[in-house]
Amino acid sequence: MPELPEVEALAHHLREHAVGRAVTRIDVVSLSVLKTATPAYTDLRGREVTGARRHGKHLDVECGDLHLIVHLARAGWLRWSDDLPAAPPRPGGKNPLALRMHLSADDTGGESNAAPRHAGFDLTEAGTKKGLAVWIVADPGQVPSIAALGPDAPALDRDRLEALLTGETRRIKTVLTDQKTIAGIGNAYSDEILHTARLSPYATPARLTADDLDALFDALHGVLAAAVDRSVGQDAARLKGEKRSGLRVHGRTGMPCPVCGDTVREVSFADKAFQYCATCQTGGKPLADRRLSRLVK
Ligand SMILES: [Zn+2]
Q1: Fewer beta carbons within 10 angstroms: which end of the chain, N or C?
Q2: Where is the Formamidopyrimidine-DNA glycosylase catalytic domain (predicted)?
Q3: Do strands 23-28 and 51-55 pair parallel, antiparallel, or not at all (unpaired)?
Q4: 19: left (phi over 0), alpha (psi -120 to 50) or beta
Q5: Which of 297, 236, 291, 234 is nearest to 267 (CA)?
Q6: Radius of gyration over alpha carbons of the chain, in Å?
Q7: pLDDT tens across 132-189, in order?
Q8: Ligand 1 centroid vs 284 CA: distance in angstroms?
Q9: What's the gap in Å between 68 CA and the centre of ligand 1?
C-alpha cells in the first residue's frame, strides 16, 4: 500500500506537472471507485488544477474550490502521462484502469497549441481486492477517513508522540499504523521505524522507557524523511506501480538483516504479513506466528 512517502512523491509530481493546467475530460472506467455523486465528476471539467497535497495516505488534487481526493488503498497507483490516448478507454474485466484525468496541454493563459496532446494521469488498481476510492468534495474534511485522521506523522514533536503513547496498551505496531492515532504510516514504514528504533512490534507503548521513546521519535522522522527523499527522486508518478527501495526488513523475509546479519523473520496474518529482526528487536526471541514459522526457522 502506498504510504506517506509515496503519496508525498505523487503530490510533488502533480505540483510540478499538473498545476496550471485545466481539466479537459475525466474518463471513469470503474464507477465503483467514485464515493461521491455530488458534485459530479464532470463538474471538474474546465477547472484549473491549483495544487496537490497529501492528507495522511490520501492524495488531494485541488481544482479551485473542488478537490479530487484519492485513496490508493492496497494496490492502487497514479501514473502520469504526457501523452494520454485520446480515445475513450473501454471497461474490461482485467483492465486495471479505474479513472483517467485529461489535462490541457498548455498552462492556462498560454498561447494555443496547434496539436494539443492530452497530458494527465491514470488511476489504476491491480488485483481482485478493490479498495481504490475517489471523492469529489468542496472540503477535504468531508471525506470521513480524512476527518478521522490523527496528527500527521512528520508534524509530531517528541512531546506529542509521548502524549499519544501514554497509557496506550495496544501493540506499538498497531498504534503506529492506526490512521486515527498517527496519519501516514502503514505496514511497510512501521516495520522500518520499529527496526531502526530496535523495538519489538509487540511492545506496549505505555511501558516504553524515555530512551525507547527517543529512539522511536528519531526513527519515525529519520525513516520517513529518507523515504520521502528517495520516493521524490524516483519520480513516482512515472513508474507503473510503487517501487520501494532502501527498505531494511519490510518485504525481506528470509534475507539477512543489514544491521546484524540475522535472518529477517515474518509474522503473517490471513491477508498480510510484517517483518522484523529478532536479534535487533526482540532479544533474539522469535515472535509467535500461527503458521509456526513455516518460512523461517
Ligand atoms: Zn538485525
Answers
A1: C
A2: 2-93
A3: unpaired
A4: beta
A5: 291
A6: 21
A7: 999 999 999 999 999 999 999 999 999 999 999 999 999 999 999 999 999 999 999 9
A8: 9
A9: 42
